[in-house]
Amino acid sequence: MKNRKKGIGISGLIKIFLILLLIGLITLATLTGGYVLSVLKAAPQIDPSNYRSLINETSQVYSDDGQLIETLVSSEFSEYVTLDKIPEYLQKAVISVEDERFYEHNGVDFKRVVGALVHDLKTRSFDQGASTLTMQLAKNLYTSSSKDVNRKLTDIFYAFNIETHLSKDQILEAYLNSAGFSKGTVGVQAASKTFFNKDVSELTLAEASLLAGVTNRPTKYSPYNNATLTAEDNMETVQFVLLPTAKDKENSSETVQIAQTLFDLGRIDKFDLNQVKNNVYTPIKAEFNPISKKRQELILDLMLKQGYINQDEHDSAKAQEIEIKIGNRSQKGLSSFFVDEVKREVVNILESLGYSSEDAHAKLYNGGFNIVSSMNLELQKHLEEVTSNAKYYPGNRTDDNGIPQPQVSAVLMDQHNGQVKALIGGRGISGGQTLNRADVPRQPGSSIKPISVYMTALENGSTAADVYLDAKIPPKVLGTSNWSPSNVGGYVGWTTIRNLIRRSSNVGAILVARDIGSDLNAHTKTTYSRAVDTDKAYNMMIDNLKSIGVSSVISTKDNPKYNDANAAALALGGMTHGISPLEMAGAYTPLANEGIYQKPTFVNQITNSQGDVIYKKDPVGTQVIKPGTSFIMTNILHDVVTQGTGTNANFSGMYLAGKTGTTNEKKDAWFVGYSPYYVCSVWIGNDRHERLPFMSYAAATLWKGIMKPIHEDLENKVPEQPNDVEKKYVRAIGRSEYFLKGTQAHYTNKLGWYDSSENKKEKKSDDDKDKNKKNDNNNKSKSKGKSKDRSKDNEKSKSRSSKNND
Predict the structure, then answer these.
(1) Is the backbone peptide bond immediately before 693 cis, with ω within 30 degrees of 0?
(2) C-alpha separations of 126 from 149, 150, 562, 657, 692 in Å
(3) Does the reported pTM lie above 0.85?
(4) Fewer CB within 10 Å, N side or C side of the chain?
C-alpha cells in the first residue's frame, strides 16, 4: 500500500493558533509586566504619612490685634482646613460624584479602571481616568496632570501605598485640601472664600454641591465666568475681579470711569484705581456659570440616589438660587507698602532659620504661615488718610506720570520695642512693585544733627552749656580755601549748645563736631579750637550712626556706599546717599527710649501651618548711649518744638521733642520727632529732586497732623531725670542746666568776648595778643560787668531769628 500524506487539519490549526496565542499572551504579559515594573521602579519613594507638609497653603498677614490684612497669593490661593470643619454634605457630595465606592476599595476601583483603560485604548484619548479619590490625591501630591499610561500606573502604585499608611478620613481631608477649584484656588476653604466669601463651614448644601462639581473640569465647571463690566451694571452690587490687562490693550475711558465709580463706592482702593488708569489691571465682571448649575443638579441626584440626602433636602438645594460673592484677599483702603516690608522681613527671617533664598521666597507664599505683623490697623488707616490730604503740600501738582508731587513718606513706630505701627511710602500710589519712599535714602539736612553731632558730643564730654561762637567761620579755620557754612537766619554770637540746637545753627554744628574726641578743657583762650582731630571726630560720628542703624554710612571694599567723612555730610546732612525715613525713625529711638536703640521691625510672630511658633520678635533693644544723654537731648529737642525751629509740630497736652531738616536748594523737608509713645519721621520732597516751594515747616505741620489725633486720649508723660544726670546752676549763662554727672560746662568764659568792628562776640586769638594787648585788656575789663546782660541780649537775638533758621 502507498503511504498517504495527511494534512494538519482544522483541529491542528486550532492547536497551533492557541499555542501561538498563548505565546503571544505570555510575551505580552512579560513585556507588560516588565514595562510596569520599569515604571514602578522609576517611581520615587514616598512617605504618605508626611502628606500634610506636601500640601501648599497660602500665607496670611495679620495686624497686631489679629485682623487679616492680606492673603499672600502668588499663583494659587490655598488654605488648609481639617475634616471636622468641612460640612459632611460637602464630603459626601465629592464622594458621590468622584468615587462612589471610596469606603470599599483599597485605593483602586478595578471595575472602573478596566472600563476606562478599554475606552482609552480604543479612542487613544486618555479622557477617562476612573481615578479614585486616593489616586487623585496621589496625582495632586506626587505626580502630575499629564494624561499618559505611565502616570496612571504610578498613581495606582502610590494609591496602594497611601491606603496602607493613611485612614480614609485622612485621605479625604488631604484630597479636599489639595484639589483645584478653578480661578487659582486650591482646596475647599480657599474655594469657599473665593466664590462665596465665607468659611467652608458656613456653606449651604446647594453651595457645597456646586463646589463638589468643579474639580472634574475646573475650567468648564467654574462657579463664574469672566464677562465685560459695563456702565449699565449696578456698581454697588456687581461682582468683579481685577485681572491683568491684555497685552497691547488699553483700558477705555468707560473702563477708567467704572474704576473711578468703584473707588468712590469704596470697593477698590486708590492703588487699584491707579493700576486701572495705568493699564495694569482691568475690572472684569464675575458672571455666574450656568453649566456649573447643571453639574450641581447631577450631584444632588447622585447624593439622593446614594442615600446621603433625602428628597426634601434634594429639592430645596436644587431650588436655591446660587449667589456668587467674590471674597476679598486684603484690607481695602490700605497701601501695600507696609505689607511689602513685612514680606521682605519674613524672607530675611526664614533665611536666618536656614532656608535658602529660593525656598524662603517660595515659603513666604505657600508655606501656610500666619504672620502677625506690627501694624496697628487704626493707626495705618489714620496715616493713609492724613498723608493723602493735599492741604499739607503747598504747590501740590501732578507729574507726567499722573503721580502727585511733592511726594511723602512717614513712619510711625513704638520706640520701646521697635514695632513699626504704620508706614506710608508715597501718596496717590499704593506699593506693590512701586517705589517705597520709606526705604529710599534722601539727604536729611539738619535733622541729622541730634543723632550725628550732638548725641556723639554729649557722650564724649560735651554739655548743653558749652559755649561756641555762632558767627561766620573763616575758611582757614576749617582748613579750606573758600568754603564756610552759613546759617539760614543769621548769627547770634557766643551762645550755648542748647541754643545752637534750638535754632539749628549750621555754624554751631560744625564747631561742636570738630571738638568731638579732643581735649575739651583746652581752647579756653582761643576763639576756635585748634588741637582737633577731624578724622577722629568724623569716624566717631560715623560709628555712632552705624550703631543706630544708619546703613548708608557703612561701606565695604566691594561696595563703597558713601564718601561722607566730612563736616558738610555728618554735621549738616549733605550726605552722598542720605538716610531713609525708615532708618531715620529708628535712629531717633535712643533719644526717645532712655538710650536704647530699637531697630524698626514689621513682624511680631510667625506660626507655621501646624500652629508651631517658628519666630517671635525679641523686644530687647541695644543700649547705645547713656540714659542721661538721652534725657538731656530730649530736653533740648523739647525746646526745639516749643520755642525753636519746630514750633509747627507742637500741640498741647503732650511732651514732644523733635528736629527739623531742610536740605540745600530746599529739595527735601523733614521733621523727625517723638512723644512718650511714638517716634514719627516725616519726609516731603519731589521724586525728581526739584526745588520745593517751602521749608521744613511743612513737614512739621504734617507731623502734627499725624501725631495730634492719636494722642488725644493718652496720658502726658514728662521724662523722669535719670540717676546719671544732675541739674546745676551755671553763673556764666545765668541759669541752670542739665549735666551728665562728672561733666561741666566748657568755654563759658568766652561769653564776655566782643569785637565791635565785626559786630560779633569774639575773643582775639593768642597770636594777636601782643599786637592788641591794650584793646584786649580793655574789652575784658568791660565785659566782666556786662557779661550777664549780654547773655540775656543773646537770648533775645536768638529768639527773634530762630523762626527763619532750620
Answers:
(1) no
(2) 8, 12, 64, 74, 69
(3) no
(4) N
